[in-house]
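lol ok so funny story. i was supposed to be doing the assay writeup but got distracted and ended up predicting the structure for this chain instead. priorities right. anyway since i did it might as well share w the group, maybe its usefull for someone
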Amino acid sequence: MRFLHTADWQLGMTRHYLNGDAQPRYSAARRAAVAALGPLATDLGAEFVVVSGDVFEHNQLAPREVSTALEVMRGITVPVYLLPGNHDPLDASSVYTSALFSSEKPDNVTVLDTAGVHEVRPGLQLVAAPWFSKAPTTDLVAEVLDGLQADGVTRIVVGHGAVDILVPDKDRASLIGLGAVEAAIARGAVHYVALGDKHSRMSVGSTGRIWYSGSPEVTNYDDIEPDPGHVLAVDIDDDGAVKVDPHRVGAWRFMSLKHSVDNSRDVADLDINLDQMPDKERTVIRLGLTGSLTVTDRAALDTCLDRYARLFAALVPWDKQTEIAVMPADGEFDDLGIGGFAAAAVEELVSTARAAGDDAEDARAALALLLRLAEGGAA
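and the output, tada:
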């Protein structure tokens, strides 16, 4: 038996830092990653798809978001089982109980809206732990495992949330206790645990049967979310043995980069590195820069960053990893071809820029602008 495990589609997600038309393209890419599950299920012979929570970004979505999401699910053709998670819980405002969702839900889509056993076919069950609020007060997975015993039925647990060994806050009531899950596996009551919440693909514990699939399209930077963009193909054979294979469906990248800039050569190296990155329209860069530059080199750096901010889906300053000191070099403004009052004003700006007062940053910005204008660059 083979099925696809996915989670955290979060359809309707926005990223405020995306440039221009990048947000609509990103939203389309998230739907495309879901649509890719249809051909993949056909190619692999998967019986069904389980989505382990957070199908939607939240419950208050525009009607178009709900309709386009359901249309994408319709195209998957095999049965699709949706688990409400912390972003889209089954509360009073749930998208799953809305008139629009109910009227347009395809026949192949089932919401796992009750806790406990859902029969897929004789001998195969899903054990669901849906969220009914954003702040559960108990371990929802442990509750549905309680009392399950080995009886020849193949069972797949579908849960959402953080496993207790992965977070420092062990007192959170909603944490999934690894001990209870592994005990259920050990006694043969369940065979695979399909989890959502972590957006990076991850195996938990030592059994090889407890997995986060990660989000099928990236949602955060690679230092936070190192392995997104996959769906898991899970095989459970007649003896209960499990095999898990990842398949990439995502197309975007969110990357965190650090670069030292202390001279014009470093700025040129940064330019080359950014230039050589492929798929700029599908790449978001969070850039941390450290170093000490002359006003001239800082102006060159700004010109470089301005260019790539237009080319990438987003080029975002990494404020916590950025610290650049700008200091005018001796003779840096001697060749401007100005004299009299203008030359005296430049000298005063240079003096102010070298000081440590509150006006130093404004003086450095003014000098950088002066250099760009003198060189015929854009203001």
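The chain is about 30% helix and 20% strand. The CA atoms of residues 254 and 284 lie 5 Å apart.
back to the writeup now i swear
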